[in-house]
């Protein structure tokens, strides 16, 4: 359960904090005057199995709304994922199979319910209503939007100007997720700024079918660990929900100083006044150094997913490995037959997520055994006289490999 910091803030200020845009605040105030729980929609396509802090920005806001008494409807786009969201894409996406989306969906909810209250969250799959649509109904939905308006979308506009292909199927994607909003009669829909077109399409579709339009609330995109590009698993600059407490803490400590306030706001939900107060207190107690603020941020992030005890352990681990330049004592041990391929060790031990990531890290010089850099992706581990070695990946990941 994430910490809540809003205290004496009024309802609109709570909702507004950390958002990029609310369309519109006047309509939101009107809906809040209904004095009933509002239906808050959040849709996620299970196109990949892992969630990261970039996704958490929206989940934190959803949890705030949930704790204010509103009804969260979490839509898993098991049908639309097979088409693929064209947002931010410069080429046609490959369609996922039903088997792929089913597999990815199974991991989503376990991660989501680390943040949202399971008992108070309604989970729907959009295949419930989209799978059975006949062509007449699809034609009716498609007739509600013009090609000209569709080409106003940034990614479509760029691809059209650059004479890159756009499939008709991709045009259907925003219409189908918009139809989701009509089906559940959403009062509010949340998404990142890259989802603005889809959220506005939802408003339009609801009006087309004669119901009150939803409020579109967009949230900023969280910068990744490099502080420049958006957080993304494909870019390798992410903190995953499934990362160990030690990795979460260490990765957070690696972010550039110029994005500390952004993380405090978007991840922890602190407003400008809170951030100023916390920094003043930390600087007065420890000294005027941004690293002390990062220590606070790193502990709070680990506490969200694992609790205070694991946050304490993660901080101790970081201090041992980085401040004292020591190898941690409590490393996991992994048995390795003589001559095992280094990429196989990295993937089978789950030290890295995939063989492609293992190869990339080796090429970058980020893999060491007993301090020796491994730069050959075809390297096979040999123990010679030793029966144990320390495998280090990057700055934070350690594994004791044992001959066996």
Architecture per CATH nomenclature, i.e. the level-2 architecture of the largest domain: 3-Layer(aba) Sandwich
Helicity level = 40-55%
Instruction: Report the strand count.
Output: 13
Q: In CATH terms, what is the fold-level topology of the largest domain?
A: Rossmann fold
Largest sheet: 6 strands, mixed
Please give the radius of gyration in angstroms. Answer: 24 Å
Low-pLDDT residue intervals, each spanning 5 or more residues: 1-8, 88-92
Strand order of the largest sheet: 1-6-5-2-3-4
What structural class should be given to the helix and strand makeup? Answer: alpha/beta
Q: What's the CATH class of the largest domain, please? A: Alpha Beta
Q: How many structural domains does the protein architecture include? A: 3
Q: Helix and strand string, N-terminal first?
A: HEHEHEHEHHHHHEHEHHHHHEEHHEEEEE
Strand content: 5-15%
- Averaged pLDDT, please? 87
Distance between the termini: 41 Å
Number of helical stretches of at least 4 residues: 17
Q: State the shape.
A: globular
At the fourth level of CATH, the homologous superfamily of the largest domain is: HUPs
């Amino acid at each position: 359960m994430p910490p809540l910091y809003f205290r004496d803030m009024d309802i609109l200020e709570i909702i507004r904090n950390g958002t990029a845009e609310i369309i519109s605040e006047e309509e939101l105030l009107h809906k809040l005057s209904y004095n009933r729980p509002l239906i808050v929609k959040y849709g996620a396509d299970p196109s990949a199995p892992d969630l990261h802090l970039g996704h958490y920005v929206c989940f934190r806001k959803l949890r705030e709304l949930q704790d204010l008494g509103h009804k969260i409807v979490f839509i898993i786009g098991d049908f639309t994922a097979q088409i693929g969201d064209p947002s931010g894409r410069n080429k046609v996406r490959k369609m996922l199979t039903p088997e792929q989306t089913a597999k990815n969906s199974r991991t989503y909810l376990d991660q989501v319910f680390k943040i949202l209250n399971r008992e108070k969250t309604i989970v729907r799959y959009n295949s419930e209503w989209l799978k059975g649509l006949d062509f007449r109904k699809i034609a009716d939905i498609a007739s509600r939007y013009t090609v000209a308006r569709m080409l106003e979308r940034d990614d479509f506009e760029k691809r059209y100007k650059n004479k890159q292909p756009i499939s008709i199927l991709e045009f259907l994607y925003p219409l189908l997720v918009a139809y989701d909003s009509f089906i559940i009669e959403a009062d509010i829909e949340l998404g990142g700024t890259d989802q603005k077109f889809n959220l506005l399409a939802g408003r339009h579709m609801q009006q087309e079918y004669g119901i009150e339009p939803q409020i579109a609330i967009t949230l900023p995109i969280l910068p990744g660990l490099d502080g420049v590009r958006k957080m993304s698993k494909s870019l390798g600059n992410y903190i995953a929900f499934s990362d160990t407490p030690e990795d979460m803490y260490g990765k957070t400590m690696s972010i550039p100083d110029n994005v500390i306030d952004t993380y405090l706001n978007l991840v922890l939900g602190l407003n400008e006044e809170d951030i100023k107060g916390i920094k003043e207190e930390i600087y007065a107690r420890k000294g005027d150094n941004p690293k002390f603020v990062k220590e606070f941020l790193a502990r709070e992030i680990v506490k969200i997913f694992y609790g205070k005890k694991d946050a304490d352990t993660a901080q101790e681990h970081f201090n041992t490995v980085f401040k004292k330049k020591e190898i941690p004592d409590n490393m996991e041990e992994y048995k390795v037959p003589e001559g095992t391929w280094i990429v196989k060790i990295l993937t089978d031990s789950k030290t890295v997520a995939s063989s492609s990531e293992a190869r990339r890290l080796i090429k970058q010089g980020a893999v060491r055994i007993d301090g020796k850099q491994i730069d050959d992706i075809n390297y096979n581990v040999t123990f010679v006289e030793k029966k144990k070695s320390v495998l280090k990946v990057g700055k934070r990941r350690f594994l004791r490999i044992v001959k066996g």
